[in-house]
Amino acid sequence: MTRLRFAAFTLSIAGVVGVALIGQSAPDNTGSRMKSAADAYLASLSPELKQKTQFDFNDKHRTAWFFTPQQDKQKMFTRKGVRLEEMTADQRKAAMGLLKSGLSAKGYEQATTIVGLEDLLQELEGPKGAMTRNHGWYFVSVFGDPSNTGKWGWRFEGHHLSVNYTLDKGEVVAGAPIVFGSNPAEIKNGPKKGLRPLPEVEDQARALIKSLTADQQKVAKQAKEFGEIKEGQPRADVGPPVGITADKLTAEQKATLVKLLQAYAHRMPEDLAAADMKKVRATPDDKLYFAYSGSPTPGEPYTYHVQGPEFVVEFLNVQADSAKNPANHIHSTWRRLPIDFGLSE
């Protein structure tokens, strides 16, 4: 029954947001859509919930982001903000409308699938599992007052999902960090067998790795796997780039690398994705690096980085999933360099 609830959750969330947006006039850019969605979300809340969800723009909570489970010894949540399970149906519609304003249609589909996977994890791990699995434990925070003249931001966050945006004068100045994770990376059994919530970030990377010649492998492959994504801070802190540069790839290999980066950028709305991909294409080939560790064979652990002067993509698939299938648990992110959240330093 849990897997049926997982499917119903994903479909119902997508449906209610669609209904909520019908009849609204279409703002002319993503920043305006985010402001309208944030205004609608805040207006839907009681005074008590509004106080819990809204923070000063410079509050330390804005850069204290996490995509891993955050709970205390009693297995109770420690995240701030307002969680989905304490909202009314109309408030949840508004909260999901805010999330939708910051994602493409595909990105939103992937995000809601990630949320729904909590039900599957609850079934696989059982009541004695170390972590609380609850699709109501996704939290919304708004930083500052939504405005077309000043700075403000928002976050939608829970296990394996952290979507962070910063705006200034009505324009998005940072859409990072954005983290999508998936446990399992591929559902191995049951009604959803074969479902892969984040296929592109693996398929394009595996294709690129397999295409590398022996000489290219010597440069691209790292002896040590890349470390875990550094949450809770505004800096990716990945160090200098390593691996093979795009000028050492064939035209076909570089095209695959671009498709891999598109898989990350296209989680965002079309205009933001286009702006980031413009930066990618403007990056000199000798400044765009690809590096990996491990093996691209499914079931074997591997990690990779794609790094340019202004961004880094981080990916890990090294953990077993909750059904004990090896290397079937993804963490993936796009981050800005040298610092996220629209900060200068």
TrEMBL record:
It holds the Pfam family DUF3500. It comes from the Bacteria. This is DUF3500 domain-containing protein. It comes from Frigoriglobus tundricola.
